[in-house]
Specification:
Shape: rod-shaped
Helix content: over 70%
Largest sheet: none
Strand content: under 5%
Length: 85
Amino acid sequence: MDFYQWCVLAAVAAFIVFVAFAVRAFLQITRTAEAVEYLAISTAENVDKAKSAFDLIDNVSTMLDSTFYKVMKLGMDLVKRYRGR
């Protein structure tokens, strides 16, 4: 075998190794994409489950805020009334 045949043999071997690594990389990318998709679906389901709890907390918080401000206004009105006497 002469020099050029050795070069062709080395190039073919390198190409075969490259193809093997590329196939393994694409398989790993596919598995990673499937895992990310599963994680996204799982997270979306958990967010939907927790949304009602957050809505309840928001409603209670709004009710307490409005009640707190009404009580504070009543207290300030009473203080102003007694100071005016």
